[in-house]
Amino acid sequence: MKIVAAKKILKANDQIAEENRAKFNAAGVFAVNVVGSPGSGKTTLLEALFAQLKGRLRPAVIEGDIAGVIDAQRIEALGVPVVQISTQGACHLDALVVAAAADGLDYDSIDLLFIENVGNLVCTAGFDLGEHLRIVVLSTSEGDDKVVKYPAIFQGSQALFITKTDLLPHTNFDPQRITADMKRLAPDAEIFQVAALSGEGIPQAADWLAGKVKR
Ligand code: MG
Ligand code: ZN
Predict the structure, then answer these.
(1) Most buried of 14, 135, 158, 162 (most Cβ within 10 A)?
(2) How far apart are CA 10 and CA 196, in angstroms?
(3) Domains of the chain by range and CATH?
(4) Interval 54-103: pLDDT, tens
(5) Distance 121 CA to ligand 1 centre (A)
(6) What ligand is nearest to the CA atom of residue 71?
(7) Phi/psi at 63 (nearest 5 deg)?
């Protein structure tokens, strides 16, 4: 019997992630890993950010999905370069598939790369993809207990985007509770409240992101 320890697999992932980061650095590309549940509004957030960042930064996207190209088509429709990863059942991205997808990018024409992870608050937390920044997306319809219930994904993220704030009057979601829980787990993380469809909160988020890229 052969047993491969999960720790070893993660170590191999970390090495490839470092190679990805080195490649991104050499090309002057700032990479952002976008994580969150299915339906939390990751793609809609990207669409809203692109509208704000137009003319300031040149974005591209690596889309991770179990099946289909629905999100990639939405990104492409905005004229943003996109590479689709079809994970064929895998519930998260790892550094190796991101390395393969990144080979399909024209580094000369981009400076900000979003890697939209598979919708999942659990195992996406364990895989460094070679990004410079990880942002976690949580919508108001998912409940304000998620930071406590899924600590790893929040603890390792540098920003929390609370999305769909326009739905707040119809939910019992308490932004103060989630903010307090996030501050306890990740004191340095930025917290944004946005309604991507109406654009509320998006300019501030875009400015923050642009500042990160310039640095
Ligand atoms: Mg999506
Ligand atoms: Zn997984």
Answers:
(1) 162
(2) 34
(3) 6-214 (3.40.50.300)
(4) 999 999 999 999 999 999 999 999 999 999 999 999 999 999 999 999 99
(5) 14
(6) 1
(7) -100, 125
Measure 43 CA to ligand 1 centroid, in angstroms: 4
Ligand nearest to the CA of 72: 1
**How many whole angstroms from 196 Cα to the centroid of ligand 1?**
13
Spacing of C-alpha 25 from chain mean position: 18
Cβ-contact 210, 30 below 8 angstroms: no
DSSP conformational letter for 111: S
Q: How far is the CA of 127 from the centre of ligand 1 (A)?
A: 18
What sign does the dihedral 156-33-16-2 (CA atoms) show? Answer: positive
CA 75 – ligand 1 centroid, Å = 10
Q: What is the pLDDT of residues 116-146, one digit of tens each?
A: 999 999 999 999 999 999 999 999 999 999 9
Angle at 141 between CA 184 and CA 131, to 5 degrees: 55
Ligand nearest to the CA of 64: 1
Distance 28 CA to ligand 2 centre (A): 29
Nearest ligand to the C-alpha of residue 89?
2
Question: Contact 168/139 with Cβ under 8 angstroms?
Answer: no
Backbone angles phi, psi at 43, to 5 degrees: -65, -40
What is the biggest distance separating any 2 CA atoms in the chain, rounded to whole angstroms? 57
pTM summary value: 0.95
